[in-house]
Each structure stands twice: as C-alpha cells, then as structure tokens.
Amino acid sequence: MTNQKAPFTVHAAITPYGSLVKRFFAFFIDSLVANSLATWLMYLLNLTGSSWEWLLGIIIYLGYFFLMTWKNNGQTLGKMIFKLRVVNENFETLNLREVVLREIIGRFIQSRLVFLYLIVFFTERKASVADFIAGTCVIKDVDYLEE
User: CA distances (Å), 1 to each of 4, 6, 17, 71, 131, in order?
Assistant: First the structure.
C-alpha cells in the first residue's frame, strides 16, 4: 500500500504566508493535543515517573506532528482550525523526506534550542529553522487549490 497523495499547486503571487499569530495559536493547540496524548498514553501504560517518560514523551510529541502533517496533506489539528498548511518551497504537497526533516529533525532541534523560534520574526516568509531545514513554508490554506 503506497502513501500517494494528490499533488496540488498554489499560486504564490496571490497566496500569503501564514501569519505569525495564527501559527502561534495553531502550535499552541497542537502542543496541547500532543502533550495530552503523551500524558494519557504514559498513564495508560503505567510509565509516569519512569526513566522512559522523557523519551516516550518526545517520541509521542514528534510522532503527533509527523503523522498529522504526513497523513493530512501538511496540516495538523491546529493548522486545520486556523486554515494553515505546510507546503514545500514550490508550493507543492510535502513528500516523506520533507515531513521527516521538518517535523522530526527540525522540531526536535527547535525544542532543545527554544530561542531558534525567534527566527520567524526576521525572515520574509516567516520561516522557522524547521522550514529552512526541510525547504518548506506555512501558507494560508485557500479554497482555490488546484488538484
């Protein structure tokens, strides 16, 4: 079974990048969901307070972002609510490599070096370190996507 997604393109000239405010609140919602999921699973598996708690928490947290972005065409729950989408620099659907680089490698680096989140304030595309690593950007999800 392959994970083929229908490609889409977005007209870059008329598609603004996602605003920092919407990105912040989308991230906030996603973090609440991912952390709640991690807490619930660790409680269910009776792993709270164990030496595995930190590692399992990171795996679940990063896994949430990876799976949601990969399976939902560049959207997590927070991005869906705020009508945002992650695409590559050509405004196309993300491939597996781009999702891994952005949602696992990039997000892990940013979670360890939190000050790196400030980069979004100084880039034209409002790009994060994860976006630079993966060659992605966050755009407003628009109704005029061509499938």
Answer: 9, 15, 33, 14, 29
Indicate the residue type of 143.
D
Q: What is the pTM of this model?
A: 0.80
Say which residues have a Cβ less than 8 Å from residue 5's Cβ, sequence separation at least 6: 73, 93
CA distance 40 to 77: 18
pLDDT in tens, the chain (147 residues): 445 555 555 554 555 888 889 999 999 999 999 999 988 888 887 777 777 778 888 898 999 999 999 999 999 999 999 999 999 988 889 999 999 999 999 999 998 898 888 888 888 888 899 999 999 999 998 754 444
Retrieve residue 88's tokens.
Answer: 């590559």
Q: Where are the domains of the chain?
A: 12-140
Contact criterion met (CB below 8 Å) for 104 and 62:
yes
Residues β-bridged to residue 138:
86
Contact 53, 61 (CB under 8 A): no
